[in-house]
TrEMBL record:
Residues 9-115 form the Formiminotransferase N-terminal subdomain domain. This is Formiminotransferase cyclodeaminase N-terminal like. Gene3D superfamilies: Formiminotransferase, N-terminal subdomain. The gene is FTCDNL1. It comes from Gorilla gorilla gorilla. InterPro entries: Formiminotransferase_N, Formiminotransferase_N_sf, FormiminoTrfase_cat_dom_sf, FTCD.
């Protein structure tokens, strides 16, 4: 994706989920962000990084796309996390609020923090 395109508005979400020990669950959450409602890959959505901390039992999934698509991508990932992570058995040294702890969004190009 070229940042020189007119009107391109990019943002990233560093989705924090309460799972690190079961890699397949974290990967499925990341994959959910990449798919549209019909299960086909969004060509404009990217998972840039997955960082997992075993001690904290927490992973951060970096999702980047246009501002218009970010909400649906993050929501799909959150829904997968809610279905896959059992908070009754979740353990880790980092306190957690739920299957999804934090959903920070950062502007990348053509968008302001206020937006």
């Amino acid at each position: 994706m070229s940042s020189s395109r007119v009107g391109l508005r990019l943002a990233a979400c560093l989705l924090n989920v309460s799972e690190a020990g079961r890699k397949y669950i974290v990967e499925n959450i990341a994959k959910a962000a990449l798919l549209d409602k019909n299960g086909k890959k969004h060509p404009q959505v990217s998972v840039l990084n997955i960082f997992s901390d075993q001690d904290y039992n927490r992973s951060v999934i970096t999702i980047a796309t246009s501002v218009d698509k970010l909400g649906s991508s993050v929501l799909a990932a959150c829904l997968e996390a809610f279905q896959a992570i059992d908070m009754e058995v979740q353990e880790g040294i980092h306190p957690c609020l739920g299957a999804v702890d934090l959903i920070p969004i950062y502007p990348l190009s053509g968008v302001t923090v206020e937006e």
